[in-house]
Amino acid sequence: MATDQPPAAQQPADPKGKGKQSPRATAMIVIGMAGSGKTTFMQRVNSYLHERNQPPYVLNLDPAVMHLPFDANIDIRDTVDYPEVMKQYNLGPNGGIMTALNLFTTKFDQVLSHVEKRANDVDYVLLDTPGQIEIFTWSASGSIITDALASALPTVVVYIIDTPRTTAPATFMSNMLYACSILYKTRLPFLVVFNKTDVQSHQFALEWMRDFEQFQDALLERRQTHGDEDGPAYQDSLMNSMSLVLDEFYKHLRAVGVSAMTGEGMDELFDAVQEARQEYEREYKPELEKLYAEREKKKEADKAESISRMMRDMKVSPTTGQAAVPQSELDKYLDPAGTGQAGEVEDGEDSDDDDDAEVIDRSSRTDYYALPDKRRRGTGPGGAVEGPDGSLWPAP
Ligand SMILES: Nc1nc2c(ncn2[C@@H]2O[C@H](COP(=O)(O)OP(=O)(O)OP(=O)(O)O)[C@@H](O)[C@H]2O)c(=O)[nH]1
């Protein structure tokens, strides 16, 4: 269905509190194999939304990217210096990305608070992830980031597939198994995006997903025309069986075709994202609320248990409530400086955090255009720079 505007967020509920409305924004976590076109896709989605006056809130989580062809509100490179991480920890490129992501994850509460502040002003929050897909999908930090985001706002995983490179049944099957593993790992609403449809239509993939016999026929034909090029013959029977196993998985899988290059298929993409958002509300959020309720109950039980343990340790009489240690003695422990403010807890946030790396929301900086080149990408015509709101400003 073609529309002028991507569907705006429909009003669901805040996962953190039962019955509360979810924020307006839908988060799209964009993942895909290296070269599948993630960055081009992000650029296309970004410009599509800008054209419709729905500028998204953008996060770049790839510390190794050299050139980002769009402005990110939050960029991991502002917080973590990837080349320095490699040097200091004596790591190669992949280890460096993983460590940089781990370091950034320790600051993700700050990221989340920036995102939450804007979650009712924008319709979409976009996350670009590292090109080395497994660093995000199979690392602890990837899970922490995904879960934290999904607990704050409706979140959809967008899995980009390089369509022209998936026409061989064996490659298609590997890609689908990977998609399946990510789906089961995140348990989030999932959208498969067949990219590069300007080069290769994705119809063959939809047919293989709809009818496993068509996939099996294609497999046989490929074996006859290409021999052992895709692998030994015995793997065909495995793939035949896998196509049967995945049949159920395909039935619940949303798939669209787009060309990040030409912009074809963007309306269908956003329709599918909104459908996925509904699924989040229907299936993921109730699970999340149940989990929160269980955790709260456990926390209460733990608190009651530790209070009773503490009382036992202090030898408080369960019948009189009197401590064996006189109250005047206890006050000394609680207020060693004798300030008279026994037991008060101070918020040390401003006092000792000064050395910590801060996560910057670039769009809130007044000196945004004075930032060094490393932090200010996206040059426009005539030496102008593109601002976070999409408008062009003269370069300083
Ligand atoms: N024809 C065509 N080419 C595309 C499309 N999307 C991306 N490409 C090309 O595919 C190549 C890889 O695209 P990127 O956007 O860099 O892919 P990526 O997944 O970000 O790659 P990494 O940075 O390695 O993770 C580039 O040459 C793009 O121009 C598309 O829709 N159609």
From TrEMBL:
<dbReference type="GO" id="GO:0005634">
    <property type="term" value="C:nucleus"/>
</dbReference>
<feature type="compositionally biased region" description="Low complexity">
    <location>
        <begin position="1"/>
        <end position="13"/>
    </location>
</feature>
<protein>
    <recommendedName>
        <fullName>GPN-loop GTPase</fullName>
        <ecNumber>3.6.5.-</ecNumber>
    </recommendedName>
</protein>
<dbReference type="GO" id="GO:0005737">
    <property type="term" value="C:cytoplasm"/>
</dbReference>
<dbReference type="InterPro" id="IPR027417">
    <property type="entry name" value="P-loop_NTPase"/>
</dbReference>
<keyword id="KW-0342">GTP-binding</keyword>
<dbReference type="GO" id="GO:0003924">
    <property type="term" value="F:GTPase activity"/>
</dbReference>
<dbReference type="GO" id="GO:0005525">
    <property type="term" value="F:GTP binding"/>
</dbReference>
<feature type="region of interest" description="Disordered">
    <location>
        <begin position="295"/>
        <end position="396"/>
    </location>
</feature>
<dbReference type="Pfam" id="PF03029">
    <property type="entry name" value="ATP_bind_1"/>
</dbReference>
<keyword id="KW-0547">Nucleotide-binding</keyword>
<feature type="compositionally biased region" description="Basic and acidic residues">
    <location>
        <begin position="295"/>
        <end position="315"/>
    </location>
</feature>
<comment type="function">
    <text>Small GTPase required for proper nuclear import of RNA polymerase II (RNAPII). May act at an RNAP assembly step prior to nuclear import.</text>
</comment>
<dbReference type="InterPro" id="IPR030230">
    <property type="entry name" value="Gpn1/Npa3/XAB1"/>
</dbReference>
<keyword id="KW-0963">Cytoplasm</keyword>
<comment type="similarity">
    <text>Belongs to the GPN-loop GTPase family.</text>
</comment>
<comment type="subunit">
    <text>Binds to RNA polymerase II.</text>
</comment>
<feature type="compositionally biased region" description="Acidic residues">
    <location>
        <begin position="344"/>
        <end position="358"/>
    </location>
</feature>
<keyword id="KW-0378">Hydrolase</keyword>
<feature type="region of interest" description="Disordered">
    <location>
        <begin position="1"/>
        <end position="24"/>
    </location>
</feature>
<dbReference type="InterPro" id="IPR004130">
    <property type="entry name" value="Gpn"/>
</dbReference>
<keyword id="KW-0597">Phosphoprotein</keyword>
